[in-house]
Structures are given as structure tokens and as C-alpha cells.
Amino acid sequence: MLDMRLIRENPELVKQGLANKFDTSDLDKIVNLDEKRREIIRQVEKLKGQRNKASAEIAQKKKAGESADDAIAAMRQVGQDIAALDNELREIDQELQTALSWLPNLPHDDVPVGKDESSNRFVREWGEKPQKDFEVLPHWEIGESLGILDLEAAARLSGSGFYFLKGLGARLERALYNYMLDMHIADGFLECSVPVMVTSETLFGTGQLPKLAEDMYKTERDDLYLIPTAEVSLTNVYRGEIIDHTMLPMYMVAYTPCFRREAGAAGKDTRGMIRVHQFTKVELVKIVRPEKSPEELESLLIQAEKVLQGLKLPYRVMVLATGDLSFASAKTYDLELYAAGVDRYLEISSVSTFDDFQARRMNCRFRDAEGKVRFPHTLNGSGLALARLIPAILENYQNADGSVTIPDVLRPYMGGADKIG
RNA sequence: GGAGAGGUGGCUGAGCGGUUGAAAGCGCUGGUCUCGAAAACCAGUGUGCCUUCGGGUACCCAGGGUUCGAAUCCCUGCCUCUCCGCCA
Question: Which ipTM value was assigned to this complex?
Fold first, then answer.
């Protein structure tokens, strides 16, 4: 949620930000609703002042045993006027809140302006693409031939867009998330195990609702959504609360399944486990003091990179263009992992700062050392997505004989095994 | 799922439909005292909105309703607790 005060006082700045994000919301309408809202508040509060005064007098008279019938009769009309204005105010409030809830966050000044990913800017890269003197099979082929990935079984159970790992494949997933969790915990993140079904209020808080309703699974009977990312459960942990500044910065990490309908993605990445409806992910979330958030973003990015460096997987860092940013994000770095079998870069982590956009939607605040109540900044980053990591390992660590070498750092988690196959 | 009880400030906990934004206690902050600390005493201590910056107004789980007037009465929803049932 954007600050209404900012919109009111600096509409041109907000308009520019929205334009850079290629958002077409009618900001003038919002400014007008806001003005109308304040006008009604001025009127109704004046009447309420009268009413409160009269009520006190009525109470006094009754106490003194005098008749207050005249005063009561006189206030009857005022009471009706107040009710009418309150109704009008409620409607305008609702209209204004709805309009505000559809406004995306504003991008930072240093985010490249552009309508899609072709404007994303290269930041840095790490590692060498593996040189292979044989044809590297894509992960779905090598996975099937090693007997560790059974996409047919997954389709039998759930239809297209699911994966079924077996044996050392399932073990590899477990090794990966244990490796990642251990690393993040050692670096100060609080390990959390969280609900994967949440209410619409929770999804509103992080900005998935109202805009992304079509991209999520919903349990109609109970009105709960399956989370598309653990960001939702972690970030909302103090929704509606005022926390003490000594709790900041708060670093959290959780391993969860994630659920995405991938509506509108038909035809893209139809093979293998790169784009699926259910995948697992280790997610990192930070809640921090506003003045610290730029450096917290950089260190969060480094935290995600550390996983790939440990696994010796080559990647590049991109900063997303304004048009490629998600609804709630003010600035996002993508980590793109090179996978030799499909011969392309896969988005494996998205590291974002939301400024106070999510905190406002969640109404999550903190009391600073001076006792002042303020909105914190929230950030998150994948650390990392397993359904992209496993294909990259199966492809980049593939050997000519059809086996796959297990990265050094995972071997302790794999019962000492050094290769699959 | 069935039966019952209940949701009040950071916490505990009062609160006949009418000076109740809300007693009291605890906690916290500042002060006095002290070489310093503890104790004691004194003072302060919620959030949002509107504002002509004097103030005004709203909020006692949430949303409706009754009333001149609601923390207090009524309805709906959510949540918590106890007992039973079911169950990993």
C-alpha cells in the first residue's frame, strides 16, 4: 500500500513511478476520493462533537432528576444525519481502499526503466559454465534413466506440472534443503516451520491479493489459499502488531512447498520440473529498520549467492527493469543459474525489497528507541528453489557415462555417496 | 463434529446504557533519595483519523443493528479455553 499522504502531497512523483511500472491506475480519481473523504469526516465529526456535548447535558439532567425530553427530541435529527454521513463515508472509504489496494509499489530510482525482462541489467556473474565433451541430457531424461525422477507417476497422480522424486533423487532434495537451512541458520536466520494454507487477509498483506488471485490455489470450502511462497507466511508473522525495535532486524528462514496455478503460462517449460504447480523452496525473509533496508537487500542477495557458490554452480545476477518487477517490489535482483542440459539460464532466486509497502498493507509497525511508531521495511529472497536447483545439478554435474556427481558440500547429507548412478 | 465458558490497554484484571480512553495492580520511562544500586516516594506511559494546530473525533476481537447516547443490549462471523468425539 502506498502512503496516502505521499499521493496527496506529491501526486506527480507517484504518477511517474506508476508510469515506470507500466501501471494504468487512475490516480486523479484516488486524489478526488481522498478529498471527498476528508470533507465528509470534517462534517460528521462536527456533528459528533455536538452530539457528545448534548449527551453529557442529558446525562446531567437525568442525574438531577430533570426532564431531558426536549434535548433528546432535538438530538434525534442529529443522530440521523450522523448515520447518513457515516454510511456515505463508509462507501467512499471502501472505494478508496479498493483503489489503493490495486496500486503497485513504486520502483527505486536506480531501477532500470523498461517494459519487460529485455531491459533487465546485468550486475555480475560467478563461476564457469561447465565444459562437456559429450551431449548433456536435459534433467528429465537423465533423471528418468537414473530412476530418480518419475514424471509419468506424477502425471498419473496429479496431472501435468508435478514431479515425483525417488531414491537418491528424493534424497538429493532433502540434502539440498538441509544444506541450505543449516547455512542460513548458521548465518543468523531464525528457522521457522509455517502454515502453507493462509487466509485472504494474509495474502493481502504481502500483496498477492487482490491482483494475483488467479495464480493461486484456493480451498473453497474453508476459504483458505495455498501459499505460492513462504514469503507470505513469514512476512505476515506480525501482521497487525506493533513490535519493539529490539526485535529488529528479524531474519527468518523456512522450507515449504509452494503452489502455483501458472495460469497463463501454458506452453512454457512444459517438460521436466522447471515450471510446476508444486515445488519446494527455502525462503529467506527480513524485517528491518527502514534506514537499513538498502544494505539489507545487498546482504540478502549475497546470502542467496552463497548457496550457489557452495554448490559450485555458475550464475549471474540481474537487476530487474521496472516493467519486470512484481506488484509489491521496489527493487529486485534475480539470480539466474546456468543449466547445461537445457542450455539456458534459469531464474533460481528473486531477492527483493518492498520498502514499507507490505508493512502498510499488513499494518505491521515497530516502536523505535524514541517511542515513535513506524513502519519497518520488509525483504525476501529465495534461498533457493529446489525444483530449479535439482535440474541444474543433474545437468551441470552430469558425466559422460550417464552418472551424476554429487557436489562436495552435499555428500555429508547424502550418506557419503559421491555420485548417483 | 457436539456441549459449555470467554474475548477490555505491553501484561494481569475491574467495569449499573449516560463526565469511562476506560479503575486497580504489574511492567516500562523520567525525577527525588543514594558514593552507586535496591527499596520507597513523585510524575509520565495506547493507536488511527480530521484539524483553521486551540483542539476535535474514533477505536474495549471483527462487521452489522437497537438508542438522543453502547465497552455495556441484540444479530452474524472469527478466535481462545474446558469437557466429549475423532485423529497424525
Answer: 0.88
